[in-house]
Amino acid sequence: MMTHPLLPKLRELRLSGMVHTLDVRAAQAMERQLAPIEFLALLLDDELERRSHTRLARRLAQSGCDSQKTLAHFDFSAAPGVNRTLLQDLATCTFISRHENVLLCGPTGVGKSHVANALGIEALKRDYRVLSRSIHRLLNSLHAARASGAQPRLLGKVLSADLLILDDFGLHPLTPQAAQDLYEIISERYERGSIIITSNRAFEEWAEPFSNDLLASAALDRLTHHTHMLIIRGESYRQLSRRKEVSGVTPALPADNASQAQ
């Protein structure tokens, strides 16, 4: 296959992926007596699909999302309280085109990160630029980047993403610099780019990690102006899984009980 006589020409035209299906399509064209233009259309479809998969794989690697945590892997049957209509609406990613945010609150281990990641995967499928990070890791990276002069470049990447996913807000208290950085991210992305934030704190407690009432008020005001909020309730899947392993029962996939609050 990689010594096909047409390969040099296809490479020169940057169409080398066609060689993988060229023989198969040629055989189909003869068998079905396809017109030349129909044969060419099949090859072009193959090339477009290959490029789409390559682009998705590249964006997935750059995004920080987990390819295994999708909505298809979420066990809705084990959580009848999940607002499937809302999740399906969010999965269309129209909230991204409207520059709206999604806030996911609930105790540890109930699947907030899974839902956030799944929405990130849906956004990647639609060619949106996605960046997913632990909020603690991201703010630490911004702080470290100042010393090397790389902070503007990293911040630019954060601000230019169509969808920014920040996991585990409130798990660690914010330093004054980290609080300022987070405020800048929220402020600069306001009505320009979407943010998904997960937190094991009740929303009423979100001001506490800032340790600055004025900064917290300004940040949360912008963050919640155009937002969808999911309150996820339930028992930690990890603890449930541990007990089932002890009893010899194989656990089901993680599932959350969620309700919407606007």
Attribute tags:
six-stranded mixed beta sheet, Rossmann fold, 51% helix, alpha/beta, disordered C terminus, 2 domains, 262 residues
Q: What characterizes the major β-sheet?
A: 6 strands, mixed
Supply the CATH superfamily name of the largest domain: P-loop containing nucleotide triphosphate hydrolases
Number of helices: 11
Distance between the termini: 56 Å
Strand runs, count: 6
Averaging pLDDT over every residue, what do you get? 86
Helical amount: 40-55%
Strand content: 5-15%
Structural class: alpha/beta
What's the domain count?
2
Strand order of the largest sheet: 2-3-4-1-5-6
State Rg.
23 Å
The low-confidence runs, each spanning 5 or more residues with pLDDT under 50, are 254-262
> What is the C-level CATH assignment of the largest domain?
Alpha Beta
Q: What is the string of helix and strand elements? A: HHHHHEHEHHEHEHEHE
Which CATH architecture of the largest domain is right?
3-Layer(aba) Sandwich
Determine the CATH topology of the largest domain. Rossmann fold
Describe the protein's architecture and organization.
This protein is α/β, with parallel strands linked by helices. It has 2 domains: 7-60, no CATH class; 64-261, Rossmann fold (3-Layer(aba) Sandwich). The protein is 51% helix and 13% strand. It contains 11 helices and 6 strands. Mean pLDDT is 86; it is low at 254-262.
